[in-house]
Write a structure and sequence with these properties.
Blueprint (H helix, E strand, L loop, with lengths): L6 E6 L3 H8 L5 E4 L6 H10 L4 E4 L5 H11 L5 H17 L7 E5 L6 H14 L4 E4 L3 H8 L11 H6 L10
Parallel strand pairs: 1-3, 1-4, 2-3, 4-5
Helix pairs in contact: 1-6, 3-4, 3-5
Length: 172
Amino acid sequence: MVTSNGTVVSLVGDSSAEVLKGLAALRNVEAVEFAAAGASELVSRISRSHASYFVSDADPLLHVAAAWVEFYDDLVSLETLSLEAETAAAALQSGATVMPDYYLVLEPETVEGTWRHWWFGALARKAPTRVLPVPGSTAQVRALLRQLPTGRPWGELAAWLRGLPYVVPDTV
């Protein structure tokens, strides 16, 4: 099980690389671009970090999210979504990856279609205070970091991941 000394935050959105660069200059913030680190390196860095905030663009549910969106957009099969959900559940249970404490969705007004239902429906329904919309600027993210609310734990993710095919976009 991966433990962190600080708050782990995942930035989602087109401006995440720019925001990460701006956050890297702050004390008590370790900002890492996922493209620069593999999953195992990222988990290792999270566990070694002594920063108050570990912020990256890494999303352990990226493939699950894409499969869920594509399933409801009639682009992939139920088997694809189920496979991605099982793979993510196994990675989370083994400690090969870790869920962030928060997802900050940058520029939420630009999120379209079924992706909006993923971020602000399916995922937010699991832990509403852990998926937060924020303008895509370093200053706005910095301000939000200082006042992150306490969220309920993610809880059991494996069962939730397996139930995703039954989480219909228009109902969440």
